[in-house]
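Weekly modeling sync, notes
Attendees: S.R. (lead), two postdocs, one rotation student

Agenda item 3: backlog of single-chain predictions. S.R. asked that every request posted to the team notebook include the full sequence so nobody has to chase files. The rotation student volunteered to paste the first one in as an example of the format we agreed on. Action items at the bottom.

Example entry:
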Amino acid sequence: MSTDDYLIELAKEAGQYLQAQQSHLEHEAADLRAQLATVETALHRARMANKRALNYVPTLRLDYICPRCWVEREHATSLTNVPGDSKVDRFRCYECGSVFDIPLDAL
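Predicted structure, as returned to the notebook:
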């Protein structure tokens, strides 16, 4: 085998090796794009959090509004009063799952 033929074979092997990795690399790139989208969404929420916190109004009509849902997603989700104990007034948000215990002496 001549030097030219040998080098051509090496080039073909390198091409086949890289072609075999293409599918794996495409999946990896897709996974990274999905992760990036998730991080960008979280970053947007973080950037908007302070503005939303400053604009938070605790009541809408007669309902208390979940502060977490408002700050994180700007959703005006009603809080439900649930049984607490004699020292707290307990509210639950059924959208995000948060529970808020408001000390009765703070009222």
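Discussion: group reviewed the output briefly. Residues 57-107 form one domain.
Action items: rotation student to repeat for the remaining queue; S.R. to check formatting next week.
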